[in-house]
């Protein structure tokens, strides 16, 4: 069946056939398969070499779609990842892997709002299912929030730059219009109507008009520059937003029966090792935790306006 084709292609076909019908065995081939495809993608048409990855054994098994989504995610096929994840979610609405991969693909494609929605859903499922990947997903949530802030900052700077450019053009245009009136009408004088200009007086007036325009533009640039500098001058995170274990901004704060707030993920990880409050050392279990909704809202607002705090 495989006679007459190159050994390299034969090996890839065998791995592909093993991976999709038998996902439990296919994982062993994933890294070599995906890695080889990446290495040769610059030299050949990989789609014609490997063909489409079709799920033909059982198209109602969500695991097949999440497995294929992971492969495509590793190979930077983000549009196809989204298709697979949405199909998996249709089959199993509580698919943790599907939402996690979906958020990663959406972020890579430049859709931070959608990525945040998907990643937060994955985080909720990870908490509910007690998944060991909850820490990784929580980190991804923070990265998505940072990326969303960065894109928002880029758009803001672009808007302000365009505004500065437009106002500058208006000032320059008004100045040139006034200069043109002086040049075309020697008897025109906005201050003393009817007075005749000599050549030197006209030139002096033109110089005054252009000098005033330059001063306005410089003042305008100073105002924009100071506003930008002030925006980045103070980069401090309020103490009440900081987790007492990791000393980073909290994503999902919970409060203990002793009145202390921690990030849920880091506190749960601590409780696996010691059933005590990290600060007071008094007995503490997961049942003693309650969501701190007010603090969570404050953290979300702060990160939305200060995405840099993710790396603080």
From TrEMBL:
Domain U-box: 236-309
GO BP terms: cellular response to misfolded protein; positive regulation of proteolysis; proteasome-mediated ubiquitin-dependent protein catabolic process; protein polyubiquitination; protein quality control for misfolded or incompletely synthesized proteins
UniProt cross-references to PROSITE patterns, sorted A to Z: U_BOX
InterPro entries hit by this protein: CHIP_TPR_N (IPR041312), TPR-like_helical_dom_sf (IPR011990), TPR_rpt (IPR019734), Ubox_domain (IPR003613), Znf_RING/FYVE/PHD (IPR013083)
Sorted UniProt keywords: Isomerase, Repeat, Rotamase, Transferase, Ubl conjugation pathway
Domain of life of the organism encoding this protein: Eukaryota
Transmembrane segments: none
Keyword check for Transmembrane helix: no
This protein's name: U-box domain-containing protein
The organism of origin for this protein: Tuber aestivum (summer truffle)
UniProt GO molecular function: peptidyl-prolyl cis-trans isomerase activity; protein-folding chaperone binding; ubiquitin protein ligase activity
Catalytic activity: S-ubiquitinyl-[E2 ubiquitin-conjugating enzyme]-L-cysteine + [acceptor protein]-L-lysine = [E2 ubiquitin-conjugating enzyme]-L-cysteine + N(6)-ubiquitinyl-[acceptor protein]-L-lysine
Keyword Isomerase applies: yes
Cited SMART domains: TPR (SM00028), Ubox (SM00504)
GO cellular component term of the entry, any: cytoplasm
